[in-house]
Amino acid sequence: MQTCAIISQKGGNGKTTLAVHLAALATERHKVLLMDLDQQGSALEWARRRGDRTPDITPIHLATLGREIERAVGDGYTFTVIDTAPHADHAALQAARAADLVVIPCRPATFDIAAISATLDLCKLANKQAVVVINAAPIRSRVVQEAIDAIQAMGGTVSPVIIRQRVAYQHCLIDGRTASEFEPGGAAANEIADLLANLQTWMQTDGR
User: Fold this and answer.
1) 104: enclosing H helix or E strand
2) Taking a C-beta distance cutoff of 8 angstroms, is the pair 86, 40 a contact?
3) pLDDT higher than 60, residue 24
4) 3-class secondary structure, 106
5) pLDDT (tens digit per residue) in 56-76
6) 4: nearest Cα among 98, 74, 67
7) Is the pLDDT of residue 143 over 80?
8) Cβ atoms within 10 A of the Cβ of 179, count?
9) Cα(126)–Cα(29) distance, rounded to whole angstroms?
10) Predicted local distance difference test score (pLDDT) of residue 39
């Protein structure tokens, strides 16, 4: 089973939006479980609006994370996404240790970039590969390349797939859809497809 943890010590970076999109799209090829480790429960609320459509989702607590992953394997799940809370060092560390890959969403803004150093340190402590995803980026702006340069200077690995600031990501969540369901074949849908393919390549090769 491939397990991807979405982690950022700073709030407002779009963790849950990425988590639900990756989990939903992965159902095309996998039996997927989305684990909501964030007490705010945003992913659970999205799933409530979504109804019976995949992916499966479950709220989890830090104390039961290991058992839930073992249960997921036993239940035949082949892809798991863990949505984590910000400002939760211990929980984030345990989620990183449980994952095959840590995905760190980061907006291309000064404070957001500065904040990911703590998350990168946490991944090093967990001895897990981490990939930074530039999220909610302007459609056209030099700040994206500046952000990539800054993150790489900090020792971070940046995904080549950039997630742009697009209205489809906001509108689709209202009734529990994803960007590809809201606007099939649109730019947002294509970005998520490219990102999932890129992340799965990392998990299959351990980043090599």
Assistant:
1) strand 101-106
2) no
3) yes
4) strand
5) 999 999 899 999 999 999 999
6) 98
7) yes
8) 28
9) 29
10) 85
- Please give the Cα distance from 14 to 21 (Å, whole number): 11
Rg (CA), the chain: 16
Q: Class for domain 2-201, per CATH?
A: alpha beta
CA dihedral sign, ordered 176, 43, 112, 144: negative
Q: What are the sequence ranges of the domains in the chain?
A: 2-201
At position 201, the amino acid (one-letter code) is T
Q: Three-state DSSP class for 190?
A: helix
Q: What's the pTM value of the predicted model, to 2 decimals?
A: 0.94
Q: How many C-beta atoms surround the C-beta of residue 41 within 10 A?
A: 15
Helix H or strand E encompassing 57:
strand 56-59
Q: Which residues contact 123 (CB under 8 A, 6 or more apart)?
A: 7, 96, 102, 104, 129, 130
- Binned at pLDDT 50, 70 and 90, residue 80 comes out as very high
